[in-house]
Design a protein that fits this description.
The complex is a heterodimer of chains A (486) and B (352). Chain A is α+β, with helices and mostly antiparallel strands. Chain A contains 11 helices and 14 strands. In chain A, strand 6 and strand 7 form a beta hairpin. The longest helix of chain A has 49 residues. The chains are: A alpha+beta (486), B alpha/beta (352). Chain A: Its EC number is 2.7.13.3.
Chain lengths: 486, 352
Amino acid sequence: MWRKLPPQTSVLERSLDYRHSPSLRGRFIAVGAFTIILIAALAIKLVFDYSERLADISYDRLLRSALLQMDENVGQENGEITIDIPWSAFATLAQASDDRVFYKVESSSQGFITGYYDLDSTPALPVEQGGIQFFDRQYSGETLRFAWLERYLTEPDASGTVRIALAHTRLSREDMAASVTQRAVELITLVALVSIVLLVIGSQLILRPLHRIEQELEQRTPGDLTPLTLKTPRETYHLKVVINDFMQRLQTNLEELENYTGNAAHQLRTPIASLKALAENARDIGKPEEQHQALEKIVQQCEALSDTVSFLLNQAMISHRLQSKSLGLIDIVQPIQESCRAQALTAFRKGVMLSFESDLDEAVIVGDTMAIEQMMQNLIENAVRYSLLEDSNERREVIIRITPLPHIYRVQVIDQGVGITDADKQRVFERFYRGRYDIPGSGVGLSLVKDIANHHNAEVQLSDTAPHGTTVTVDFPAFQFKGDHQ
Amino acid sequence: MRMLIALLCFGLSSLVNAALPVWFGSEQASRTLYIHSTLDMTSFRPLLERFVAIHPDVRIGYIDVNTLELYYLTVSETAQPTASLILSSAMDLQLKLVNDGFTQAYQSSETDRLPRQAKWRDEVFAFSYEPVVMMVNKNAFAAGAIPEDRQSLLSYIRQQDDKVAGRMGTYDIRTSGVGYLMASQDARQADATWGRMLEAFGSHGVKTYCCSSDIIDDVATGELVVGYNLLGSYAAQRANADDNLEMIIPKDYTLMLMRTAVIPKRADNPQDAGRFLDFLLSDEGQALMTSEELLYPIRPDQEATHFAMPLGPTRTIRTVDLDQQLLVGRDLVKQRRFIRSWELALELSSGD
């Protein structure tokens, strides 16, 4: 069978390979999750800053209100500045339920009036008379939030300033900030987690078409190369098209190979059958001279068969080469000249002159040197063969000519042989078609020429040589550097 | 004034140090818990005895101290407190101890059960209520003439001018912390009434005392006709035991104090202090206060059929909040001014 099974990899190897392959979905989830976590972290940072500010704003209001109530009750009694702290001031502060309260009232003339003597009541910020300032300061082992006020006394006979510092600990502020933060963090965490879960589910959904293609291909019978008809999303459309193209190519190749093999077998069967017949004939003939003649025929037949086989091998080799090797920049003058030289002696022995005509030093095309040589060999052999059929006393000559044309290098093989009928001209490029069975040949020569020419984007034409004979013209597109407008 | 306080403080602390503790529990007990308290022994003995019965490894040294003395003693002993648990009815001084950083926090399942308003910062805990009441000697009143509130007391004083002269008693707010608290809260609740009461007291030669029990003693003997602003638990106990005495829960408003406990910051034995506090707050301790007619328990569910707490829903109860507001009453200037006006009204000189 022509079908070659892929080398069986072990299950272990496969699973190892699978495990070490980078995962599209994993990458998608990782990048998505990373982004979500980054955003969540930023949001949490913002919430932390915000909640502290919010708590300070709220509780500074309490502190301000209590301070103002105290300030209102600063007065003069028996010529002394004094303060009658209202109960309500501290009822206000009691809203910050667990916070310790400290205060100090001083005047510029009397110094300490009441409160906590050792409380540091120096302002932390530039003083603005009558304005309240807030700041944090350590006292009694805790950080206190201070509301601080200094103003000029307005009482009659009083001069100087009175200064009130009222402070409380930061417990309630921290509790409030923490509760705001905690709720926000809970919410953000929840949203982030839900997003990640959705991301995971979404990635599964997104990659489902790929799995469907995979399943579809896996479930196929081994010989099924029909295109995928699966309805898939736009993103996988190209993948599908590429797979279909690939399968199309595979299908074509397989078909060609099948035809070729079938034809080759058929073509080999006929000469082998005739060889057998000749051999049987030789065995049955009594006369030694006739027998000798018969054996001579067998040898000829064997040579023809050998030619056919080598043609087939050449073609197989060339088509494999064309399919597997990428083309490069090559010069065709050199290989064509080589081909002529290689065949010149053989042709000369048969009475045919080969002449090579070219003024070019170099003709660069995109192609494969070996294929070009093979093509030239086939063309020259054909030309020589056809030249020999012409019964004439003229000098038999085959001309190989390379002519530069705009964007093209024209390679011509010109013989003055019997020529090819117009009907045959249509068919000589078909594989195994032989114009004439009276000349040796496999019938694959020109079809290989055609294949090679196609592979080089070259055009092949057959025309008649005057007065008789055939001209094969192959036009190779010249390699042009980009931007070379000639 | 500060000088005076310092002197007072020194004098008091030396006095207290001389006072010997009353011991409870076995002498062989491995640990000792000193309690400084303002509670009269009669109201507290059953609770102490019960505690050492449950915890035989603890021996309690119980030292009875006046409320104001107790405050200065605690402040002066900051570095090395004698007592690991301080119990006082002067909730303002207790709260000031907490605010000024002389106490440590304590938390247990029992303190967690306390309602929010009965504790502050997990450092001061109320274990019983104390209604502020009046007490009269029934013999001095005609039937049905016993005053029910401050107004009727004032009109009685007006009518019985000579009868009540020199026969009324109340706390000396200069020496009693709880006396000051009650007076300042009275002034806060009803300033006008308080002014008239002071005026009436001043014009009729009111006697001042250090303690509830002394006032009640004098009311019982008939030396006093009326005692004003007394602690309800003591008054109720004595009124139950003595037919001559009647406790009056003023109908216009009734102040409600709380007895509180704190653990000093550097207490020797905070573990047992906590254990004792837990016992006071436990169902058993609270039930014992009721059944032995000792105190008014702090947890309302213990109040079901209480011995002498006829505080119906019609009563206007003014519970003194256990929070930062108490600090206002103890403001230096405010306190000095309040005591001065009290002295002036009662015609007492500050040198007294």
